[in-house]
Each structure stands twice: as C-alpha cells, then as structure tokens.
Structure to design on (430 residues):
C-alpha cells in the first residue's frame, strides 16, 4: 500500500511539472517569435505610466503610444500634476513636437525614431532583444523577462529589463538601469493592443493641436527649409521682431551672444547684454542688440537679450528654476534678469571644467517654428540640439517655460547638457 501511494505521488509530481511547463518557451524560441512578430507588425496602441528617477524626486508621466505601418507614430507624454501634454508625431509631412496647451508646433528634419531608441516603443524594445547575443532570459509568472543592453541617447543608461506577456509578447514593464544597476527609468503598461484600427486623423498635426488659441490664431508650420530654430518661435510671433530676424538666424546664434559674455574680445554687444543690469542703462539700444552672424555683420532680433530697463515685462513675476546637477568642477558664475525675445527671463552662467549658459524665459506669444536641430529625448520632454562649428544649444519647453543651454562644441557634451536639463527643477533659491 505504501509503495502504491509513493507511485501515485511520483506521477502527480510529474504531471505538475508538465502542466507548469505548458506555454513556457526557451529564449531561442521566444527570440524567433519576436523576430516574426516585428516583421509582421502593422499597428499597435499602448498606455502606461513612465517614472524618471534622474532627479531628486521621481517624476511620473502618463504615456500613450500609437503606431501605424509604415512610419506613422504618435506619442503623448502627460504631466499628471500639471495637466500638460506634449505630443510627438511622425507623419507624411515630417516629425513634429506639439504642445497644444501653448499652441506650439516644432517641426524637425529627422529620421526619428529610426536614429534613436525610445523606451516605450515596441520596435525599440524588440530590437534590443534581437541584437544582444549576450541577452539573459528568465520566466516570471505570466511573462518572459529579458535582460539586455540599453541603446539610448543617454549614455549613462547601461541595461534594461523587459517583461513581455507570454500570450502575445506585448510589453508589460520596462526598467532601464545605469552602470550601478540603479533604475533610472521605468515604464509600466496598463494596456497594449496589436492590430489597432487607427484613423489617419490620429497622426494629423492640426487635429492633435485641437481648438485654436483664443482670438482664432491657428498653428501653422513654417517651412523646414527655413534655417530658424526653436527659439525663434517667440520672435516670429512679434511683428516688431520679425523684421529684424534674418534668414540665417538661429537659436544657436542668438544664444551665442549670451554665452560670449565669457569672451569679451568676441562681441562687445554681448558684453553689454551681460552687464546690462549694472551699466549702460542709459543706452538701451546697446543693451538690446546682439550679433547673430559676425561674419556677415547682420544683426538679430533687437529684443533678443536686454536688461531690465528696456521692457516693463522684465519686472514681472517670472521666477527661474535651479539646475540641481552641475558637472564635476563646474560652479555658477553669475545670474541676471534679462528680456529675451521680448519676454522676461533669467540668464545664468556657469564656469569651470565646462563653460555654458542657461537661459530661461516664459513667452506669452503664440508661435510656431521649424528647426533643423536634432530631436533629443530627455525623458520628461523632447528637446532640440542645434548649432554650428563654434557652439551648440539644447532647447526645450517645459510647463510653459522655454530653456536654452548653450556651450562651445568642444566644451559641454550633449549628454551632460541633457543631465543638466533633467535636473532643472524647483524655484531659484536666490
């Protein structure tokens, strides 16, 4: 009798093992299936929550993703607390970054997302699994888990764990870590559906902008052949500034004047702008002027950078935000209130291992802009990196404030620019 019970127990254990293994595949089988899934991918939609751990406090955003073959994308990032949504579109007209609440449209000449991965795009996640021959594989309840190398713009992101549902390989969760295995970005999908039937309007720029701004102003896109950059969005909205803006003006050039304050021999007008709060108060023309193109002698928007005396708006309640991260060997040199593009703002200069300038403004004007800058995924928003052989500028908009970090091309690297940008939070302490 005892042998019979032992025999029955052994059979039950075997059956349990077999049943537990049903529906579970090995890494090689899953990889082959993922390759087929990616090849036959027509469309998908997903919703979830993204958390960034790059600052002092975690930042949480709602994410919505839509894809339609062959190259239509829509990504909406919403700050739940501030109720501000930024949308990235790719359609037949190009790549656009929209902020409907501010009626702002930036158009990019970019191969996005082919030239850079996105943690919430299915193609990016699957490609990282397929390309990493040293991938690690595990089974976690109803999900297959891959631990693979991360391939993102931010070089500090080293590895990522990807949870895929066993049933259809839809993403469940993603965790991206740095070299010290600290999670820097996480995405948890609440829903993800393949084969979604998407109307063309989902990827239409004007449709995504929604209701025109008060007064009937309708966002319209400038030609991508124009050499202007994102910062000219404000200037273009002012008729007084438009006449002074040259065809070859750019955000990087405008920023040059602020940054060249460190280089007195380069541009005396920039020096006037930097010292506007202390001297030359009786000459607002000098304080207001900046030089966009030294080689041609053309002058830029006369209100690009001015002192408090040139505009009453400089005395408004605009409050800048601190950059909580400083590269090693860098300290703040000085800061001053300015008027940039006709709007009040603050300019902060940093010096040391790297020399760079941070300008913050809060534009009131409704405008659109086209830029030839490279699209940069900053996690919490999208920015634009533009510039020439002399300097580089990172521009982004967040919660109604426009930010610009400018440095020489052989100085502050782009990844350091992004780190500084991600750390800009909280009101100025001074």
């Amino acid at each position: 009798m005892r042998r019979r019970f032992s025999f029955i127990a052994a059979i039950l254990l075997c059956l349990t093992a077999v049943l537990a293994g049903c529906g579970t595949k090995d890494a090689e089988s899953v990889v082959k299936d993922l390759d087929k899934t990616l090849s036959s991918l027509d469309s998908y939609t997903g919703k979830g929550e993204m958390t960034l751990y790059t600052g002092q406090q975690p930042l949480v955003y709602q994410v919505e993703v839509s894809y339609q073959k062959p190259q239509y994308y829509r990504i909406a990032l919403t700050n739940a607390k501030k109720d501000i949504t930024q949308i990235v579109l790719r359609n037949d007209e190009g790549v656009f970054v929209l902020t409907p609440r501010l009626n702002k449209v930036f158009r990019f000449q970019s191969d996005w997302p082919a030239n850079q991965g996105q943690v919430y795009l299915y193609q990016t996640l699957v490609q990282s699994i397929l390309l990493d021959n040293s991938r690690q594989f595990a089974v976690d309840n109803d999900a297959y888990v891959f631990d693979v190398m991360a391939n993102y713009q931010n070089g500090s992101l080293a590895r990522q764990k990807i949870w895929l549902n066993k049933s259809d390989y839809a993403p469940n969760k993603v965790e991206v870590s740095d070299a010290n295995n600290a999670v820097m970005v996480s995405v948890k999908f609440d829903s993800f559906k393949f084969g979604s039937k998407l109307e063309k309007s989902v990827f239409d720029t004007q449709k995504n902008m929604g209701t025109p701004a008060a007064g009937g102003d309708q966002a319209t896109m400038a030609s991508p052949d124009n050499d202007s950059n994102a910062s000219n969005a404000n200037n273009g909205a002012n008729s007084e500034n438009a006449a002074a803006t040259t065809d070859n003006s750019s955000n990087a050039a405008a920023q040059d004047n602020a940054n060249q304050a460190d280089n007195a021999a380069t541009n005396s007008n920039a020096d006037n702008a930097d010292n506007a709060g202390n001297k030359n108060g009786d000459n607002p023309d000098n304080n207001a002027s900046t030089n966009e193109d030294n080689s041609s002698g053309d002058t830029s928007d006369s209100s690009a950078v001015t002192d408090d005396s040139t505009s009453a708006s400089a005395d408004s309640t605009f409050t800048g935000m601190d950059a909580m991260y400083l590269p090693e060997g860098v300290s703040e040199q000085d800061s001053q209130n300015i008027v940039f593009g006709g709007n009040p703002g603050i300019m902060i200069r940093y010096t040391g291992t790297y020399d760079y300038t941070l300008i913050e403004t809060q534009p009131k004007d409704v405008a659109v802009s086209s830029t030839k800058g490279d699209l940069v995924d900053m996690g919490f928003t999208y920015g634009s990196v533009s510039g020439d052989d002399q300097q580089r500028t990172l521009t982004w908009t967040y919660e109604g404030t426009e930010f610009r970090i400018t440095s020489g091309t052989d100085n502050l690297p782009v990844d350091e620019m992004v780190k500084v940008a991600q750390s800009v939070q909280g009101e100025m302490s001074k």
Remarks:
- The longest strand covers residues 183-194.
- Residues 27-194 form a domain with the outer membrane lipoprotein receptor (LolB), chain A fold (CATH 2.50.20.10).
- The chain has ten helices and 23 strands.
